[in-house]
Write a structure and sequence with these properties.
By secondary structure, the chain is mainly alpha-helical. It has helices at about 5-25, 30-40, 45-70, 75-90, 95-110, 115-140, 145-155, 155-180, 185-205, 210-230, 240-260, 265-275, 280-315.
Length: about 325
Amino acid sequence: MNKKLKSALKISLPLLLGGVLVWYSLSKISIPVLVGYFKNADYFWIGLGVFFGLLSHLSRAYRWKFMIEPMGYNLRFPNSIMAVFTTYIVNYTIPRAGEVSRATILTNYEGVPFEKGFGTIIAERIADLMVMLCIISISLILEFDIIYNYLVTTIDPTKLIVLGLVGILILVLGYQLFKKSNHPFVLKIKTLLSGLVEGVTSILKMKKKWAFIAHTLFIWGMYVLMFYITSFSLVETSQLPFPAILIGFIFASFSIAATNGGIGSYPLAIFAAFSMFNIPEDPSIAFGWIMWTSQTIMVIVLGGASLLFLPIYNRLYPKQTSE
């Protein structure tokens, strides 16, 4: 398979999947009913939810500075903000390509080697994953019976165990082969990985560890609050129990990895989560579309502005070599 075909498939397949999921989600609610929910929604709560989402993104941009500093670089906050929003908007076109573009921006405008910048992004994801696992643990404690019954009825435990064991075996064998190989391509990968390791371990070298932890908790607190506040925009979701909010948030977060920016999958994920609490189908899907649309508009506006102003800002305020 040639590179052009691979690139085309990387872009087209997620978009195709998103299109199918959009069609499927809209097949479960009529367009006039969905439009009615948008018309009757309280946009004060939607706007407040967008504001909390914006705060989380700004905090993420500032937190990144703590990870870059131990490597001897001073990341300018405007560039960090624009790099973060560029990540989000690029991920709407090519899944996970936003992280690459974010590290590339850091290299082009701040002089940080790509592999080191990319390593800090991976370290960020590790920190975020730890917080997500804590949220999942809290949800399991609060509503263990509901979640357990849902998983048992939707997933075959035997197949899951077999797939897990096969995956572990492949990883072990692959690691041994990779470790012993001296192929030029493998050596390049090892060099890249060494830079990634430096980026990841920067989290342990930070002078401002507690500030980093505080920002991490703030980011995820704003994510959950954004989800919770927006639920007040519809009468039908304004009285959701907090466990339903947490589980809906978790399902929605994972849906973003399924398609470009969660297109199509986001409303369905929320519907699946809320169905465990016997929330009706129409308001569940409508709430999912309202959440996804409001956050997507913010990403498109600010991400587009970031792509436009990045070169302008750095032309007006070039990086000083003394930094």
